[in-house]
Design brief:
Elements lengths: L8 H7 L8 H11 L3 H5 L3 E10 L2 E10 L4 E7 L2 E8 L4 E5 L4 E4 L2 H8 L18 E10 L2 E15 L2 E12 L5 E7 L9 E12 L2 E9 L2 E10 L22
Antiparallel strand pairs: 1-2, 1-13, 2-3, 3-4, 4-5, 5-6, 7-8, 8-9, 9-10, 10-11, 11-12, 12-13
Protein name: Outer membrane lipoprotein-sorting protein
Keywords: Lipoprotein, Signal
């Protein structure tokens, strides 16, 4: 992880306070202050991330778009062809069927769960109490060779096969820089159900005054960010399900 060029006053003050005095809210406050300031994060309207993902020895270009009102788009370039891996316009979630290469709407349950994530931009910790979330400091653990604060984040429950399930994640914040370096959440369905999905974040770099992790690992897949653009010009139409698609099929 790159060392920040400057340390905020908040960090200097908290650095001399015993670790036992830290609270979950103080850790979250230090996180936002040390990565650009809460006001700057609250004023962020959208981001565009350009990255590469490693898959079976291949480097695949990836573009990620996220907006403050919950719209998302993940687009990859595979063998010279742009493919929408995931898109959500606030109402409809859709993906590309890799067998037919046609867009398909996600099922109703998956879409409703996605709607529950619309408040997560730019971070689920931003004004979390107003969102109805809870955060609990669980103690300290060593992760990725660093001492961390373990925070338990409980968000709006999700539906899994028609049953409401708790939506709990664990974030590990580096005790030196107050940034998350590991996140864990339980896989709810499929052959890996019950196991933990682990993501790592490192190599924090400054982008127009805000700090972002440029090295990510999600479920064992490495993603290297190349560029991040703040508040880019975005065409809302890119999130929408193609109206003229011959495969306007919605899953049951």
């Amino acid at each position: 992880m790159k060392i920040f060029k400057t340390l905020t006053i908040a960090f200097l003050l908290t650095a001399i306070v015993p670790v036992t005095a830290q609270t979950a809210d103080e850790i979250i406050s230090n996180y936002f202050e040390n990565t650009g300031g809460k006001t700057a994060w609250e004023n962020l309207e959208s981001v565009k991330m350009t990255a590469t993902a490693n898959a079976q020895g291949m480097e695949i270009p990836v573009e990620i778009y996220q907006t403050k009102d919950g719209k998302q788009l993940i687009k990859i370039n595979f063998q010279g062809q742009d493919i929408t891996q995931l898109a959500f316009d606030g109402e409809t979630m859709w993906t590309t069927n890799f067998m037919t290469m046609q867009p398909e709407k996600s099922d109703a349950e998956t879409t409703e769960n996605m709607k529950k994530q619309m408040k997560d931009f730019p971070s689920p910790f931003m004004n979390y109490k107003e969102k109805g979330f809870t955060v609990e400091l669980m103690g300290k653990e060593t992760k990725e060779g660093a001492e961390t604060f373990k925070l338990k984040l409980t968000q709006t429950p999700v539906m899994v096969n028609g049953v409401e399930e708790p939506n709990v994640s664990y974030y590990y914040f580096d005790t030196e820089n107050f940034v998350p370096i590991v996140a864990e959440s339980e896989i709810k369905e499929g052959p890996m159900a019950g196991q933990m999905n682990v993501s790592t974040m490192s190599d924090y770099q400054e982008v127009d005054g805000l700090y972002f992790p440029f090295a990510l690992s999600m479920g064992g897949q490495a993603i290297q960010l190349k560029d991040i653009e703040l508040n880019p010009e975005i065409k809302v139409s890119m999130f929408a399900f193609p109206a003229t698609s011959p495969a306007e099929v919605e899953k049951d």
